[in-house]
Design a protein that fits this description.
This protein is α+β, with helices and mostly antiparallel strands. The chain is built from three helices and six strands; from the N terminus they run βααββββαβ. A six-stranded antiparallel β-sheet has the order 2-3-4-5-1-6, covered by helices on one side. Strand 4 and strand 5 form a beta hairpin. The longest helix is centred in the C-terminal third of the chain and has 11 residues. It is globular, with a radius of gyration of 14 Å.
Length: 102
């Protein structure tokens, strides 16, 4: 089973309306990152091709493309590629959020 992480503010002692990480916050931050791009459809290609609709920020890490998905006021990312750990910590820091294993 692949490890998945959630970048969230759920555990912080702040007003409930501030706990949600908004799509606008994510777009504002990721727009400043040259190795990130936003897409509303993430396509996975393998033996079969699958497209998933949603709000995705694709991180281009060398030859790998690692999606950060915005969903329900949080960001989700797979921990399958170890390179994602420092990027995930950077993103959580900028968004003033915590990282939880999901």
């Amino acid at each position: 089973m692949a490890q998945r992480y959630r970048i969230t503010r759920d555990n912080q002692q702040i007003d409930d309306e501030q706990k949600a990480i908004t799509l606008e916050e994510c777009k504002a931050y990721f727009d400043t990152q040259p190795d990130m791009e936003y897409t509303s459809v993430f396509t996975v290609k393998g033996e079969a091709t699958m497209s998933i609709e949603g709000d995705f920020f694709l991180w281009h890490a060398g030859t790998a493309v690692i999606p950060f998905r915005h969903y329900g006021g949080d960001l989700y990312v797979s921990g399958t590629n170890e390179a994602v750990i420092p990027k995930m910590i950077e993103v959580a820091s900028v968004l003033r959020a915590d990282i939880a294993e999901d």
